[in-house]
Amino acid sequence: MTDVEKSLGAPPPPAAAVAPIKAELDKPSSNDAASSEVAEEKPEKEKKEGIKDFFRIFKYADRLDVILYTIALSGGVAVGAALPLMTLVFGSSTAAFNNVATGQSNAQQFTAHINHLVLYFVYLFIARFVIGYIATLCICIAATRTTRALRKAFLDSLLRQEVWYFDREGNGSPATQVTTNGNRVNQGIAEKLYTLVQGISLFFSAYIVALAVQWKLALIVMSIVPAIFGVIAACIAVDAPVESRITRIYSRAAVLAQDAMSSIKTIHAFGAQRKIVNNYD
Predict the structure, then answer these.
(1) pLDDT of the residue at 144
(2) How far apart are the first and last CA of the chain?
(3) For the CA atoms of 86, 91, 96, 102, what is the dihedral angle to 10 degrees?
(4) Contact (CB, 8 A) for 174 and 158
(5) 66-103 confidence digits (pLDDT tens)
(6) pTM score > 0.70 for this model?
(7) Which positions ≥6 away from 213 have C-beta within 8 Å?
(8) What count of other Cβ atoms lies within 10 Å of the Cβ of residue 175?
(9) Which CATH architecture has domain 56-213?
């Protein structure tokens, strides 16, 4: 009985009436249960990345970006295919030197043939330089535009999240995520994508030229290709998870540093400097 009830002379409520009310108050509500489930929610399993996640980036590209990507990738194919043609010109020049050394051609024929091959070298170099410059410029512009659209979509989705999403552990700093991952996406769909297409074009065009000129030697060299692919796949399989883990660690460290700097007075008042430093390390 409270002091007010004693002063008013009100009779105390029966115990039978108080017991259900007390049990109802002690019973956790649905909101408390939901909040406790959120608080005690276990970390979600990491989603495995795949090649479809890479191509999913290009859904943020508009029509102009698609045109720029088409020009850039076509230029990459042309630049990669032009390099084996230089080996044909170089082989012809070597044969011309052998012919003049063995006396099969005179000096005038040798000079005219070499001048003709030098022009081929110059034309191929100018063509590769111009096409490569235009292709690199187009793919860099397209990648920048696509990354900008991706960052805007990420920020729009982030601002629509509930408050409890930002209190979860392991999310990392949104600023770090959008900056670090955005730069990596930009590199992956710009220079690296162009280099990949150029390398694939160079690979197939080189073997086409080799099989057309000297097919026996080309078949012998092709035996080492599976070993090269195996080594590259093993390196990628080891490096990709490490890079992803490094990004998460740096992101969590950035969150901890940001929280520590914003609450520096509280940390200094409770003498928790050493604990914060240990957590950061």
Answers:
(1) 92
(2) 55
(3) 170
(4) yes
(5) 999 999 999 999 999 988 888 888 888 888 888 887 87
(6) no
(7) 88, 91
(8) 12
(9) Up-down Bundle (1.20)
